[in-house]
Amino acid sequence: REKRLTLPPSEITLL
Amino acid sequence: PGLLEPTSCLIRVVKSAPTLGIAIEGGANTRQPLPRIVTIQRGGSAHNCGKLKVGHVILEVNGTTLRGKEHREAARVIAEAFKTKEKDHIDFLVTEFN
Question: Which residue out of A2, A3, A10, A12 would a mutagenesis test of the B interface target, given it has the greatest number of B Cβ atoms within 10 Å?
Answer without folding.
Answer: A10
